[in-house]
Write a structure and sequence with these properties.
Shape: globular
Number of strands: 0
Length: about 325
């Protein structure tokens, strides 16, 4: 029932996203454009700008929310997100390298994606060589890798041209979907759909990881499932960051809200989590491009709403650390 209501709310908001924007269009003109009729300029606006952007935002919000749910389940930590094992910092470093060297949107997306995956693989390899608690090792090594990536990023900022390259790096780090195209939608769909489908197939095993060592007695290879789940969750994060830049708080906040509303295990909450994340990010994107004359970076709104909501949950005692 709740999933159906959330799906209906998301669908309604997706329709609204096609009508809302700084370029004024009547409802009739937009409906005609959706049927590829009427004014050619409105058709291009809907099909070449608003439609791919809306779809990319929906997929990105769902992907970030699901990845956050997976990270928090594996690490048994309500504050875990894609930053924990260096994914976001690796993507940021890769994007900065592309801006300074390669140029072009495709290179930026490719370098960002490879940077995020490299950071996570490096974290896992180093953590595997250290004895002790595997989850704790991943967290500690992730913080170390994140610090190294952040330091390298700051070095690149110093060497960047302050008038063009530095501004491009800073703006990209704040996140945004203004460069969405049908090509990016197609690539993101493949990466996100494959990752989500595999996570859904392993949902019961991932749920068992929350029971710690007891999972081994149930015949589950905890190490293999942990590695698979982390790589897939990181693939979700890297897929989003490589196209939209750093989008903050979605993966941290939405899993908490889902637990308050849905009150189900992770094995039964992945779909609902995806819908909630997609709706939240879509609302933030609509506001970011319609509140002011200039478009706001998406992380300004997600950080603002996320911080306020998390504070409310913490004050009311619904968030236990």
């Amino acid at each position: 029932m709740k999933k159906g209501m959330m799906a209906a709310l998301l669908f309604t908001t997706m329709l609204a996203a096609l009508f809302i924007g700084r370029y004024g269009s009547s409802i009739e003109a937009v409906l005609q454009a959706l049927m590829q009729q009427g004014d050619m300029l409105t058709q291009r606006l809907i099909w070449n700008i608003r439609m791919p952007r809306m779809l990319l935002v929906v997929m990105s919000g769902g992907a970030l929310a699901v990845s956050g749910y997976i990270f928090q389940t594996i690490f048994k930590n309500p504050l875990a997100s894609g930053d924990v094992i260096g994914a976001a910092s690796g993507c940021s470093l890769g994007a900065a390298i592309a801006i300074l060297t390669a140029g072009g949107m495709f290179a930026l997306q490719l370098y960002s994606f490879l940077g995020g995956m490299l950071a996570v693989v490096l974290t896992m390899l180093l953590a595997h060589r250290i004895k002790g608690n595997r989850v704790l090792n991943l967290v500690v090594i992730g913080i170390v890798v994140q610090a190294i990536m952040s330091a390298a990023l700051m070095l690149l900022k110093i060497s960047a041209d302050p008038n063009q390259e530095l501004a491009s790096i800073e703006y990209w780090l704040m996140g945004g979907f203004s460069n969405a195209t049908w090509t990016s939608v197609g690539i993101a769909f493949i990466l996100i759909a494959v990752s989500f489908a595999l996570l859904y197939l392993f949902r019961w095993q991932i749920q068992m990881l929350a029971f710690g060592e007891e999972a081994r007695t149930m015949g589950i290879s905890t190490r293999m499932i942990t590695v698979i789940a982390l790589l897939l969750a990181t693939l979700l994060v890297s897929s989003v960051i490589s196209f939209a830049g750093v989008v903050s708080w979605v993966g941290l906040l939405i899993p908490h809200i889902v637990r308050q509303i849905h009150k189900q295990m992770v094995s039964k909450s992945l779909g609902f989590t995806f819908l909630c994340g997609a709706w939240f990010l879509l609302v933030c994107d609509i506001l970011s491009r319609s509140l002011f004359v200039i478009e706001l970076p998406i992380s300004i709104l997600t950080s603002l709403f996320g911080a306020v909501c998390l504070l409310v949950l913490f004050v009311k005692g619904r968030l236990r650390l």
